[in-house]
Amino acid sequence: MGDVMGRILIDHRQGSGYLIEHPKLKDVGYLCKGKEQLAYGDVSFVGIGPKGSLKFGIELKSIEDLFQSVTSGRLQGHGGQLEGMLGVYDVVYVLYYGHMRPTQDTHLYTDLRQESKSWRKNGRPYAFLNSFLMGLDDLGIRYAHCHDKSTAGDWIRACFNRYQKAWDKHKTMKVFNQSGAIKIRNKAHQKGGLAGPVKKIDAAKLKRMEWAAVVSGVNEILAERIADHFPTTYLMVQASEKEWAKVDGVGDVIAETAVRELRARSE
Length: 267
What we know:
The chain is an alpha/beta fold. 40% of the residues lie in helices and 16% in strands. It has helices at 63-72, 81-88, 117-122, 126-138, 149-162, 178-187, 203-213, 220-229, 233-238, 241-244, 252-266, and strands spanning 8-11, 29-32, 43-49, 52-62, 91-97, 101-102, 108-109, 142-146. A hairpin with a 5-residue loop joins strand 6 (101-102) and strand 7. Helix 6 (178-187) packs antiparallel against helix 7 and helix 7 (203-213) crosses helix 8. Mean pLDDT is 80; it is low at 111-121 and 188-195.
């Protein structure tokens, strides 16, 4: 079965095959066996990003398996799982599960009720795990932690649901001050991630984007279109509703709002 919207592809192997029976995945899950098994990752689905469809890949691991695969190089080494996933998927997640807590000597145990004897003897540094996870950020790889196998299935369904709707329909995007979000985005130095590498924007255009973004109903994508249309903030403020309506994505409502709010701001 090829990659299609509305389906979660689940690899049949031991670490992830159980997910096909998860209550929240039964209606959308598809078990990949034989020639259909996933080359990399345990779960895959197609979602919607800011510029169109994206292919998501999720590597699912217990904490114990995470440590073993990192120390052996199987996960992040040359030709390892993550390298393969980065070549196949647009967005890569490492999802790990299990009880954990740091002790006084910074060791990490998998069970809050009964400390693992092998881990108590050999030690699994808590800082080691955190350092590795921070390193994933540098590669543009996302990560998340769940309580157990069941909640890992819950998380996968929630992630899937989030990226099945149009990017501009996400309510969380409306929570942030758009002007502030633009500043943060252009000061960031991360590579990769959902929106791809950070694009260099000159100071003058950034200023125009910040002005455009204060208008109610204007998101970051539309703010950049507005900044491309108006060569200066002065012309932006002085523009008529008819001129604003020439910008792709600006309708009569936003045009009227832009004229009213920007002129009020400039007074």
